[in-house]
Structures are given as structure tokens and as C-alpha cells.
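**User:** Here is a favour to ask of a fellow structure person. Please take any protein you like and set down a full record of it. No explanation is needed for now; the record alone will do.

**Assistant:**
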Amino acid sequence: MKGFQQMKVLLVFVLVSLLPLSFAKLRVGFYKASCPQAESIVQQAVQARFGVDKSVTAALGCDASILLDSTGNNQAEKASGPNLTVRGFELIDQIKSQLEVACSQTVSCADIITLATRDAIALAGGPQYNVPTGRRDGLVSQASEVNLPGPTFTVAQARQTFGACGLTLNDMVVLLGGHSVGVAHCSFFQDRLSNFQGTGTPDPTMDQNLVTTLTGTCGSNPNVDPTAFLDQNTSFVLDNQYYNQILSKKGLLQIDQELALDKSSSKMVSNLAANNALFGQSFAKAMIKMGNIQVLEGNAGEIRKNCRVVN
């Protein structure tokens, strides 16, 4: 799913843009005949990485267009400001190399990301679910097209961005639960610790003990930008503790905390905080729905040989 954009099971946010929707006719088991070992290759690679780096869950969840490197005449999405701290590219490269040996130019980078994210979520204690595959890789990646909601967005602003992608308020609240794993750089919430919205005081909606703790974590050196866990309780487990924390005024990002305060979302937050099974089921459905946004199929796009460059 790493700075703000590496929170990403969600990334949640990496997948959100304002382009028109196009839903593909994907299906579970798309590679059953053409590359029967595809899903097991992805799963084994993710499991091996998770064994040595549990933060990999939050690193995955991006759109395949962010995998493309910049060229001499084009600045790709990964070069845009919000995406500069995204990581995990080398894992996708590794999986792609293995798949090219097993079944050359058959499995798309877009499907690799989707499958790897699904597997990482399960390893982190999240729901196990099937994802439809059959995506094709896009040919365009431009930094100028990156349009992501920021950590200081209000619920209404974030809702507008998610809504432009066909995602509901409920989808948004559930997907932001991906902040149950990952970290945020201090620069994304520093103002909440001492000068919230220019008041010269901390954000009154943040727990005072958390303010003190984070102030110590972040320090005062403007040239250093430490990180803090978005979920201070079960930091590497994808569960519903994120919602319990924002109900206790312990959300790091402004958008996280406002979910618990805004009348339009507060009831959903309470329901998810009280029922981890509900969160898991809802998160799986929302991830599948998000994974169907702006998908290429059939003869559209291509199957890249190397996820970093077009063929």
C-alpha cells in the first residue's frame, strides 16, 4: 500500500485519480490455462519478502503506471512529489522476472501488483479473498496526471476525490483503514503538533499524550523527516485497530482523525471499530472494487516484458 503514499495498502490513494472510469470484464483464475503457476509464484515471492520485511504490505497497492521509469522526454508518475517515497518496485521486478521465465509475456504488471497486494494483506492478518485478473498494462505514465488526496483533506474533500472514481463514502472509510499498516513522515502531520492551522497550538482533536510522544519522535531539525506508525498499537497487522485509535483521538493524519469526527462518517467508524470481521469483509470488497477501476483488457495496452519500460 512510505511517506503518505507508502501507507498504501492504499494506497489506497495511489490508485485514485480523476480520469473517467472503465470497468473491465476480469475473472478469477484468468491465467489458469496460460500460466497456471502465476499466482503461486507471486504468493511465494511476497511471503518470502514478508518474512524479512513486514512493512512490505504498506508498500504495495499501487497502479502499474507508477512502475514505469521516466525517460528523457517524459517525467513518469513515480517522479511526482506525492510518489517520491513509494517503494517496493524491486519486489515487482523480481516477480516479473520469475514469471517471464515461467510464461513469457503473459502476466501483466498490473495483475502482479493486484495479486501481490492481496497476498500481503492476508499475510498481515487481513482478509483472504480472490481477485479477478486479466488486466493489461498501460503505455502512458505522466507525473502531471497524478492527482491524489492529501493528508490534510477534509472528509468532504476526500469524498469528492474518491467519488470521482466511482467509490462511495463507505468505500473511502473502509479503504482508509489500510492505514492500519505503514508509516507517515512527520512533515505530513507536524502542524498538528504545535501550530495547527496557524493557531500556534496543537490540534485540539489529537490526544495530548500522543502530541507529546510525536513531538519527541519528530524533533525540531527541519532537514530531518522521521516517520511514525499510523497505527501505534498493531503496527504491522491489518485490522480494525485504526478505527479504535481515531475514536480515541490518536489519528496521525488530519483526514484520519476527521473520519471519526465528521457526522457523515463517524457512525461507520464506530461500526468498524467494534467488529474486526466486518472490517475484513468490507476491506476485501472495497479492494476488489478499487482494483477494477481504469482497467485495460483485451487488446488494449500491452503485457510488458519489463515493468519499468513499455515494450
